[in-house]
Amino acid sequence: MCTLRQKIERWLDDYKLKKKLMLLYISCVLIPLIVTDSIVLHIVIHSEQVKQQHAMENDASAVQYHLGSTVEYAASMAKNIYMNAYIEEFLNRQYETDLDYVTAYYTFMKNSLFESSMGTDNTQVTIYADNETIINGGEFGRLSAVRDTDWYQYLENSGQETLLYFYYDDWKSPAVDAKRKLLFIRRMEFFGKDSCEKVVKIEIDYSNLVRDIVSMNYGFPVYICQDNRILLSNDGHSSVGREFETFEAADEVGYVKNTSLYGLELQIYILKGGMSVAAQIWENMPLILLLVLINAVLPGLLMQLINRSFTLRIQELSRAFENVEDEQLKEIPAVRGKDEIGGLMQNYNRMAARINELIQTVYKDRLREQEMDIARQNAELLALHSQINPHFLFNALESIRMHSILKQEYETADMVEKLAIMERQNVEWGTDSVEIKKEMEFVEAYLGLQKYRFGDRLSYELDVEPDCEQIRIPKLTVVTFVENACVHGIESKTSPGWIFVRIYKERQELCIEVEDTGDGLSEEELEVIRQKMQQASIKKLQEKGRVGILNACLRLRMVTEDAVQFDMESEKGVGTLVQIRISLQKLCV
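Request: output the structure for the sequence above.
Response:
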């Protein structure tokens, strides 16, 4: 846990104060606000959805109850007729004449109180019997007159004794306007099947039923359907004079309640009417935006002001500290604020004033004295250095060489001789420049020493045009690139390799080529070294890498006043070629 905290602290230390304050605002204000508002919004939406679901369930139950009570009222009427013995006897009797039927009809209506049991104006009751002596009219009729109707055929095909039937009655159209009807039908077989066939038909007032559903003011569109056929609706789909329509709003259904009434399977669909949750959010969008402005934008602006109060003054203080390397510290001209940052700026001004006084009184005076001491010490060192005789080193090397010859160690003697040549030339060169002839002697001695190291793995060839031998170049120029070819070319390759050195004149330019058949460089390494050679500087020398090459390139650029060109070609596994072109006008002959 402690390690994690330290990592987070180090990570935060790398960020500027402005980013830290913005991170604080986002993590402690904006994100919690978004999360809490999202949770509240989700709760509100879910609560509204649950509320709507309960409302739709209540509306469906109310529609089911109302329709069921209406149908049950008709069913109770049919039951009373079904069990009425007077009606059974009246319909079974055979009448001699029409007058006999009319007389019996009025006597029956007077004595049986039939009319008082027929219900309200919302229903129309008709009883049909298979008795040809009955006259059609009023509440009774011959069954033969309705055998071809849709409702009777539906009863016959169903095989049921009691059923509920919605249908569009166009049987007598156009003589009679077609319209929708709702019938409760029941066979009258309570007293047995020996008598004539009798059916009671109770027509429930369809228009009144629609008006009841509309007047209930349900909160949602309501559709009562049978097999995707709209039977009743409070949404303009219940016109009495039109054929039943098809239900095509399945995608908008919010709740479905299935019910069964006397063999009729019905579906009560409640649509997602009214304003949706998204619409409510959109309607309240001005209020939501106002809350966002208050809860997010205003704190953001305040955070920005606080951020500027911090960062601007800290930047001024930082710029003041950037000038500490000057001879005199600059004070902050206008210190603002009385907080900790303001106090820090005031303390800096006091410190700067005090340090400037110390620099004036102490530093400059002592600096002058130190410069004089350094000059005196350098003179003493030069004097001591001039007293040293470098020939003692050559005498010692000569003694080692003679000792090796006496012991017949000729290879060691030859190596010591080459080393003595290199050291003697290095000591005897009084300036930074040297003739190419002397430089090549140095190169040959160096390659001779490397030959003892690599054996047959190293072969070399030196080719210098005679008219180039007297030209002076910065010493150790060629040998630096030869050394690089040995170390980075031949040494990394296990098979034998060659080093070629060619010096010649071409178009008023001195051309120096050092080529090796070593391991070569990749394209990325080649491009890096090529740029370093072309951009050689003191700053580049301070970096790690091939310092010798950069040193040689920098000295050539300084001596020739940039009248020198460097090029380098290499191929992985094949070798490397370095080419240097120097204007002859910038060289001494």
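Confidence is low (pLDDT under 50) at residues 375-396.
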